[in-house]
Amino acid sequence: MHILLFPQRPFPCDHAMLESVYTRLLPRRGHQITWIMRRGGPEHSASPVAWNESRAYLIPAEPNGHRFRTLGVGSRIARSIQLAEAVNRAHRVDLIQVRNELSSGWVARYLRRKWRVPFVFQLSFPVLDAETDGRGMRDPAGAGRPMLAMKRRAQLDLVRKADRVLAISDEMKTRLVETGVPESRVLTIPMGVDTSMQPEAYDPSIVRDLLGLGEAPAVLYFGALDRIRRLEFLLEVMRSVRTSVRDARLILLGSASNDGDVEWLRNEIGARRLEGAVILAGRVPRSRVPLYLTASSLSVSPIPPIPLYLASSPTKVLESLGMGVPVVANDEIPEQRRTIAESGGGICVPYQADAFAAAICHFLTNRDLAKEAGRRGQEYVLANRSYASLSELLEREYMKLIKNSGGPTQ
User: Fold this and answer.
1) What is each CA distance from 390 to 185, 231, 319, in whole angstroms?
2) Looking at residue 282, what is its pLDDT?
3) For residues 104 and 120, what is the distance between their CA atoms, to the nearest angstrom?
4) How buried is residue 86: exposed, middle or buried, by Cβ count under 10 Å (0-12/13-18/19+)?
5) Are 65 and 86 in contact (CB under 8 A)?
6) SS (H, E, C) 96-118
7) CA distance linking residue 223 with residue 216, whole number of Å
8) Within the chain, which residue ranges are assigned CATH 3.40.50.2000?
């Protein structure tokens, strides 16, 4: 089958599932994947470009400024249709999939009617909720709320009319069904793990020497450092941890969309006199994250229990367990709680600093217990959450949709 994908993210993209499933595993199963996506920078001027074992057609990003951005969206829609038509003429498309984005969804719906092929909408994150949730609000004065309400209605319309909706978690599936999407048309496709990454392939001394850890036990947080992530919570946790494990270190691996958020975090670290205990390691390519995991005693996943995150899929938990590293996480996130409970790969506690600190100290002072939790967690995710098994599930679902629409085109 030939799948045309609109991924929302610009090229180049190191998103784990997009790269693993769609640019490698599905092509290796004999399917053609074509992308239409925004160009990430001037250095990527060629189009089309090879993206692992798939092909991407690139279109310019929208210019800055509200007025110019609006014009840019219109231009992108027109260019997307033009490219899609050319792709379809060269090799007939069997299925169209959009990830999160409204404008690409409109393109897909238009092409679906014209080509008579299935349309799949993947909702991997409640993007529109991020515009209104506390410190994540883009327009706290509320001037943009009428426009936001229009976007919500447009997204709901797209989701309800898609032939299949891919939800990132069972919690998100429940939300979608509550809005009127037939349950039979919603499929949960959570995040998974890349089983090609094995702990024995990575030398922990590389990162330990780089960060000057010596023999100190290390706790790893990896992910976004944006202020909405409330990482001051984790700083309070580490202050408590160090009263029992005095040489413990916290590694913060990642970046923020706003440089000011990183500076704010640096100031928070200084205000708590944790400069020697907390390491801002910056952002690294996804391929280097396993190096930091193997150098750590455990990882932590403190996800603020706000509506924006309740439907999330715990990517970092799975990646940690996949490398045999135990996890301490909060149990207010349903998918996170279920994963750790089923795997035995960590400890889930309430989103409270003292509870987090106690769980971390439990692993740091019981190394054999931590090692056993890591082993169980790794066995679980390799058996249940590999990207290979998710690829097979998606393949079956896509083929069923195509068969119901008349079968693969030639």
Assistant:
1) 17, 32, 15
2) 95
3) 12
4) exposed
5) no
6) EEEECCHHHHHHHHHHHHHHCCC
7) 22
8) 2-192+387-404, 199-384
Candidates 3.40.50.2000, 3.40.640.10, 3.40.710.10, 3.40.1180.10; CATH matching 199-384:
3.40.50.2000
303-361 pLDDT, tens per residue? 999 887 888 888 899 999 999 999 999 999 999 999 999 999 999 999 999 999 999 99
Among candidate residues 102, 95, 131, the one with its CA nearest the CA of residue 22: 95
- Asked if the model's pLDDT at residue 219 lies above 50, the reply is yes
CA 122/CA 188 separation, integer angstroms = 10
DSSP 83-100: HHHHHHHHS---EEEEES
Question: Exposed, middle or buried: residue 31 (CB in 10 Å: 0-12, 13-18, 19+)?
Answer: buried
The token pair that represents 356 in the structure block:
């987090």
Distance between CA atoms of residues 26 and 193, nearest Å = 15
Q: Does domain 2-192+387-404 have CATH number 3.40.50.2000?
A: yes
User: Would you state the structure tokens that stand for residue 232, as one six-digit string?
Assistant: 């001051």
Amino acid making up residue 77: I
DSSP string, 15-79: -HHIIIIIIIIHHHTT-EEEEEEEB-STT---SSEEETTEEEEEEPPPPSSHHHHHHHHHHHHHH
Q: What confidence tens digit (pLDDT) does each residue in 105-155 have?
A: 999 999 999 999 999 999 887 654 554 444 443 343 444 567 767 878 888
Displacement of CA 277 from its chain's centroid (Å)? 28
Nearest to 241 by CA among 225, 218, 223: 218
Q: Which residues contact 294 (CB under 8 A, 6 or more apart)?
A: 199, 202, 203, 204, 207, 323, 325
The span from the CA of 173 to the CA of 310, in Å, is 12
Taking only the tens place, the pLDDT of each residue in 7-35 is 988 888 888 899 999 999 999 999 999 99
Q: Which residues pair with 13 in a beta bridge?
A: none
Confidence (pLDDT) at 62: 60
In whole angstroms, what is the distance from residue 363 CA to residue 371 CA? 9
Cα–Cα distance between 251 and 277 in angstroms, integer? 9
According to DSSP H, which parts of 245-288 are helical? 259-271
